[in-house]
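Marked as duplicate of an earlier ticket. Keeping the data here for the record.
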Amino acid sequence: MASLTSDVPTLSLPFAVKCFRNALLLSQQVLETTSKPREDTAELTPDSSGVSLEDSLELLRQKALVNLAYAYLSMNAPELAIHTAKELLSMPTCTPAHRFLVRSYYAEALCLLSRSAEASVHLKLNDMLSLADAYAREAKADTAAVHANLHVNNATVAILQKNMPQAEQSVAQAVRLAPTSRHSLELLVYILLRKGHSNKAMQILKEARVVT
């Protein structure tokens, strides 16, 4: 009997990229089809949840673009991640939650390209905190933890720009919000080591908690 294993796709980042790109292509094709004048408009009417097909497809495209940007980042393809992020941010209907995620990915991609000054623009707290709240509500995530991750990202950008006072301030805010966050503690340890406080850094590593 012939083996069927060759017909089963291997789960991988390239396969994920292919799936997200197919989702974008198919949703666009459906949108173009339904936008043509026709007598039967049943496909355009809202479903039981009150959401029209067009709105559903638009949201699907946003989700595909967010995940595609993340996949490109994971594949160490920052240029493609930036291109994808720009496409999503250009959509007038981009939700605050998706805007928060894709701006974070955009900033990370810029940092990978040694463009930290540009990255800081996408992580401005005045803009991102409200977007972070929207993301936390939609993802049912802890708001403090989401805010802490934002401060960690800003601290990372500050370190890349050799702005240690700003990095220290951002890390302190992150630790106050999420004192057990691994990302917050790792950056705190890094800054303590940079300042020569090796004993405090070692104690945090051992106990996985903040030492004042």
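See parent ticket for discussion. The radius of gyration is 21 Å.
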